[in-house]
Write a structure and sequence with these properties.
Blueprint (H helix, E strand, L loop, with lengths): L6 E4 L11 H9 L2 E4 L2 H15 L7 E4 L5 H6 L10 E4 L12 H9 L4 E3 L5 H9 L6 E6 L4 H12 L4 E6 L4 H11 L4 E6 L7 E6 H7 L9 E5 L11 H5 L5 H12 L3 H11 L2
Parallel strand pairs: 1-4, 1-5, 2-3, 2-4, 6-7
Antiparallel strand pairs: 7-10, 8-9, 8-10
Helix pairs in contact: 7-8, 10-11
């Protein structure tokens, strides 16, 4: 049997075409099969790269692999296809990070096919580096749900998780997101950036209330990255002895003790009754 070749997942520029790496160009020139989100977008990108870097291709076939068909395409794959050089390209940015590609990696892992992910453009990390926030820990959530109830629940969790949190947002919802944050936490510090590495890139850093007012007059076109500053909650120094000394009903004591001990209210209440009988 012919040995399998290699799967390469290549990040593409999120704005400036010159952010493509020399290694990515070299691999694209050797690719036999190319998977991509949108064949029209990818062919346009390849044309620009060909013209700018005098790149020649030998691609035999293009496969569309996007968020709505990823699993079905993988299910129909013939493993023999991996006897050729395979490349997966996102429309823009890093594969598998708010982009398809994970199912493809799972497939080659299952069959022990070699693969490699090239480093490159990523809007979340680029914005975090530009934010000026000095905490090394942060969380990445990508896009929030569109449904109102799920969106509010997750946003409330984000505002209370204690960590700087990175979100992506579309231009037609960025103002709504700022308003939602302002409703829950009007003084929360935010860093928001649009059109990273593009001609009209711009960033803003202020509290959510001020940004909401500012954005009533700003041009909101473009893809947005929003970084929400985490707020650490003060830890309580209240001990079990402090609660036990309170002159309150046993049921209330049991509820308070349950919160700091992790035991059930019923179990603690029965202990309190036993101790006082």
């Amino acid at each position: 049997m012919t040995p399998y070749a290699m799967l390469y997942l290549i990040p593409t520029p999120i704005g400036n075409i010159q952010d493509i790496s020399l290694r990515a160009l070299e691999i694209l020139a050797k690719a036999d099969i190319l998977f991509c989100e949108d064949t029209r977008v990818t062919k346009k990108l390849l044309g620009i790269l060909s013209e700018k870097f005098s790149l020649k291709y030998k691609i035999e076939k293009f496969y569309s692999l996007h968020s709505h068909n990823e699993q079905s395409v993988i299910d129909l794959l013939d493993i023999k296809i991996f006897e050729k050089n395979i490349v997966y390209l996102s429309d823009a940015g890093m594969p598998c990070i708010s982009d398809p590609g994970v199912k493809l990696i799972q497939y080659v892992q299952k069959y022990n096919i070699k693969y490699e992910v090239l480093p490159g453009s990523n809007a979340a990390v680029t914005a975090y580096a530009a934010s000026g926030f000095d905490e090394k820990e942060f969380l990445f959530f990508g896009f929030l749900p569109h449904k109102n109830k799920d969106r509010k629940i997750l946003l409330n969790d984000i505002l209370n998780n204690g960590y700087n949190t990175i979100l992506y947002e579309a231009p037609h919802r960025i103002k709504q997101l700022l308003e939602e944050i302002t409703t829950l936490s009007p003084k929360r510090e935010l860093f928001v950036q649009k059109e990273i590495s593009k001609l009209h890139q711009k960033w803003y850093k202020d509290n959510s209330y001020n940004l909401t007012k500012l954005f009533e007059k700003e041009n909101l076109k473009g893809e947005w990255v929003v970084i929400i500053k985490g707020e650490k909650k003060e830890t309580s120094n209240i001990t079990e002895d402090d609660i036990l000394s309170l002159e309150i009903p046993k049921k209330q004591k049991a509820k308070l003790l349950s919160k700091i001990s992790g035991k059930s209210v019923k179990e603690i209440y029965e202990q309190l009754v036993t101790c006082n009988s």
